Amino acid sequence: MQIDTAAYQRVLGDELRSLRKQRGWTRKELNSRLQSEISLQTLATYELGTRQVSVVRLVEICAALAVPAHEVLARVHERVFGDTPTGHLSLNLVAIVADERPELQPLRRWAQGRLHTLPLGQTPQVHLDLPALEYMAQLCQLSTVELIRALRDLGGTARR
């Protein structure tokens, strides 16, 4: 897989800027919430994607924005590569909540909880890996294969 680092940086910066703006914060307000000192210019270059952000700095910025860094990176990955991470099933929480099959009630309750805590502006799309699917299958008293089949009926997409 080839990674266009410039495009990746731009998309990451766009995600960070979008999260900041969703909170109604200026760069100065975000900067005041950071654990370490950085200049407003540096923060601007991260948001513009013209400067690489270190992993530690990304985690710090995401913590200030109250969004896990792995969720931000998952959205960036989705935008840059346009696919679901390998070994995951991509699901829409709204579709799960709308489904009325009784056997999916535990999954529906979980999806409702996730939607309720979803940060402002975040898409209701989640990626579940095999251990999560196996656990949810147990909760629904279905085999993992049966649960995956039911979720694919709801429009879930998988990548092996």
Automatic annotation (TrEMBL):
PROSITE patterns: HTH_CROC1
Superkingdom in the source lineage: Bacteria
Signal sequence range: none
HTH cro/C1-type domain sequence ranges: 16-72
Classification via Pfam families: HTH_31
InterPro entries according to UniProt: Cro/C1-type_HTH, Lambda_DNA-bd_dom_sf
GO MF terms held by the record: DNA binding
Coiled-coil regions listed: none
UniProt name for this protein: Helix-turn-helix domain-containing protein
